[in-house]
Amino acid sequence: MARISGVDLPRNKRIEVGLTYIYGIGPSISKRILSKLNIDHSLKTDQLSETEINDIRKVIDNEFKVEGELRTEVSMNIKRLMDLGCYRGLRHRRSLPVRGQRTSTNARTRKGPKKSAIKKKGAVKKK
Q: What is the SS3 string spanning 34-57?
């Protein structure tokens, strides 16, 4: 089993797809890494030799921010926006959509489940 950047790559997938299991590496970066090392894109992850795995590991470590380092950078960027008090930071702080989406009807993913209005029993209206 290939282990790169603290992630166990799936055994039975093409290496091109398997590399995308690493946070920060998508399909295009995966193709670029394999092209640079002249590794066949259709090879399965369990068919890689130890030297090929080490070469992939070296390229990723030298050229890309992945996993913990990238997660830290992203969270620090969000924290910086919140500390500045800019519009995007305020939206992050309130757990609302940041990029201009409508919120009156949608945005349930970001806002969470609906909070229903609770009516008090026996409340008397004064005239």
A: HHHCCCCCCCEHHHCCHHHHHHHH
State whether residue 118 is helix, strand or coil. Answer: coil
Half-sphere exposure of 30 (CA within 13 A, CB side): 20
Q: What is the pLDDT of residues 6-55, one digit of tens each?
A: 888 888 899 999 999 999 999 999 999 999 999 998 899 988 889 999 99
- Determine which helix (DSSP H) or strand (DSSP E) holds 82, and give its type and residue range: helix 67-84
Distance CA 55, CA 45 (A): 14
Q: Which of 65, 2, 3, 60 is nearest to 33 (CA)?
A: 60
Burial of 14: CB neighbours in 10 Å, binned 0-12, 13-18, 19+: middle
Separation of alpha carbons 53 and 31, rounded Å: 15
pTM for the complete prediction?
A: 0.76
Q: Which residue has the tokens 């702080």?
A: 93
The structure tokens listed for 66 are 């992945």
104, 111 Cβ separation under 8 angstroms: no
